[in-house]
Amino acid sequence: MTASFTFTGFIIGRRNAKENDIVLSILTKRRGRLVVRAKGLKKILSKRLGILQTGNLIKGQVFAKADFYVLG
After folding, report:
1. pLDDT at 6
2. Interatomic CA distance for residues 15 and 2, integer angstroms
3. With 70 as the cut, is the pLDDT of residue 2 above it?
């Protein structure tokens, strides 16, 4: 598993993970379907909340943790 990489893709789904986290399913051209965790997304002061909606095209960076990817 690579430590980090950048991607461009569409958000195809989202679900709640913990109190402030959301798990996103992202469809990319090079890597296929990615399941990433967005930390702190549900906080009231989060600037990323409006951008990370289903159907949006995003460009981002992903970091590999123990068993999952974290959106940077």
Report:
1. 93
2. 25
3. no
Residue with tokens 């430590």: 3
Nearest CA-CA partner of 25 in 55, 48, 5, 49: 55
Half-sphere exposure of 12 (CA within 13 A, CB side): 10
67 versus 55: which is more confidently predicted?
A: 55
* Global confidence as pTM: 0.83
Looking at residue 17, what DSSP letter applies?
-
Return the residue matching tokens 């399913």.
25
Please, which residues have CB within 8 angstroms of residue 29's CB and are 6 or more apart in sequence? 8, 9
Please list, in sequence order, all residues whose beta carbon lies within 8 angstroms of the beta carbon of residue 25, skipping any fewer than 6 positions away.
11, 12, 13, 14, 33, 34, 35
Q: Structure tokens of 65?
A: 């943790």
Cβ-contact 63, 72 below 8 angstroms: yes
